[in-house]
Amino acid sequence: MAQSSRPDRGAKIWNGVIANYRERIEITHDIAPVTLLEGNTPLVPAPRLAHWIAQEFAPASKNADFELFIKYEAANPTGSFKDRGMTTAMTQAVADGAKTVICASTGNTAASAAAYAARAGLKCVVLVPDGKIAAGKLAGALSYGAQVISIDGNFDDGLRMVREATEHAPIALVNSINPARVQGQKTASFEIIDVLGDAPDWLCLPVGNAGNITSYWLGFKEYHRDGLASKLPQLLGAQAAGSAPIVLGHIVKNPDTIATAIRIGNPARWHEASAALDESDGHICAVPDEAILHMYRNIAKIEGIFCEPSSATGLAGLARSLRESMVDLHGKRVVCVLTGHGLKDPDTAIKGIAAPIMIEANITALLKVI
Ligand code: F0G
Predict the structure, then answer these.
(1) Which terminus has fewer CB within 10 Å in the chain: N or C?
(2) What is the DSSP string of 42-107?
(3) Per residue in 50-105, pLDDT tens?
(4) Do 166 and 102 contact (CB within 8 A), yes or no?
(5) Bridge partner residues of 149 (DSSP)
(6) How far is CA 331 from CA 63, 156, 299, 334, 336, in A?
(7) Is the C-beta atom of 154 inside 6 A of ligand 1?
(8) 211 CB within 6 A, ligand 1
């Protein structure tokens, strides 16, 4: 017999991060949020990947039996974690009366800013490093209608330029130096604790301009302060070896890595990132491109989770730290943030991997190859 009402699946309707965490988000709340219903991303258990990492990187160690969860930020509307901070930054920009927003970007911020600006009816200008932006990100920024400006320089040059531009023209800056960005991005920590019931032992993530590590730490501290978590996690940050200013302790003039999203030589939130790493008794390490790509391929193959190379840097850093006995993960619960979708960078995905097998269109040919 047909049911007269829908079954209660226990799910609450999700209206985006501002609606869900309104009282914790310090922005102007007197206008309707500019939102694409971002957030509420999956926290996926990844036991096969945890097992593989232990076997591959620390086979003789007793410190490698850990529980792993993936915070899959690729599931946000434009395919990266940037949407969390863009809903807050764009809402604040509209409340402040802005007509134009601007940012420098390695790609994901550009796509996200473009989408949220479209949603708000604002003009969006993005500066990207010429030739160093993945195809899916450029496709997004252009499709959402931003004015995309390619500069003969890197992200750090772009950030300097947009900072200066906002001093000369009435334009809102939506890079993560904008405090409203951090207010949105910290909600990822809230979601992790809301799902797990407490903070994890370790939170592992890639570090570029250092806005995200700053935001996560703020979120964890707030929930802990208010008694919603019994502990704080240790932070494990990872940078690409060719773009590792925080690890090296100095600015990198010409950063270089296949992980173009984190190709940054002078992070704007360097100081906050260092403080968060210190306060959390954390660890930051540098990972060569080959190790990033090795992890990137294996996350997809082992768990069916596809992220972009920069995102895999966090887990590559965890694996490296385990191998070098820099961390003891025995019995620990680890959350690793996968920051952006694998489809953002189809060129890297296809390069160096077995191409499809070509066969005749008949069953004999098919049975021969499978
Ligand atoms: N992962 C991805 C996929 C990113 O796009 C970024 C940063 C990071 C990690 C690092 O985060 O900068 O907060 O430390 N992308 C910025 C951009 C720089 O312009 O899209 P961070």
Answers:
(1) N
(2) -EEE-HHHHHHHHHHH-TT-SS---EEEEEEGGGSTTSBTHHHHHHHHHHHHHHTT-SEEEEE-SS
(3) 999 999 999 988 777 999 999 999 999 999 999 999 999 999 999 999 999 999 99
(4) yes
(5) 127
(6) 8, 40, 21, 10, 16
(7) no
(8) yes
